[in-house]
Amino acid sequence: MALDPAVIAAAQAGDPLALERLLRQLQPDIRRYARHQCHRSTAIEDVVQEALIVVYRRVGNVRDMAAMASWVFRVVARMCMLPALVALRGTEEITQRHEAEYFAHIPQDELRIDLVRALESLPAIYREVILMRDMEQLTISELALRLGTTREAAKSRIHRGRALLREYLRPEVTPGPAS
What we know:
Blueprint: H1 5-12, H2 16-37, H3 44-58, H4 68-89, H5 97-104, H6 108-121, H7 124-135, H8 140-147, H9 151-169
Helix pairs in contact: 1-2, 2-3, 2-4, 3-4, 4-6, 6-9, 7-9, 8-9
């Protein structure tokens, strides 16, 4: 990714033409990253558009221009993770109506941020197995082989990782008035 530092600086300063130029320069790299990072269940073009929106909104926050490529790559990787994390969250049926209403009223961007934070909050051993299972769609046997462990240990890590994700994502519910 060869970006002009002057264009980045002007975009960070709020120059709309520089920002447009930067986004056009980044788009092919973002698309390439998305093809590499995302798996069959993810719409590449949606990831590209979402990543461009994040860059548009947050380019002013990038402190080090040398870190721009790394930052963009992380944005794309996170966007690719979101569908799997959303599916993961759906593995446990929500039994309380107020929980469902809570998630229904959260803006989609906030949900995405929460999902990424939930994944990042996992200990590395669980995060790794969740990503391999749900993002790379490895079988239990493939997971066990890659981790150098038994099938049972791999299944246990998946179960524990998903439980931790659900716990992180579960809203704090305040009890309603007693009736």
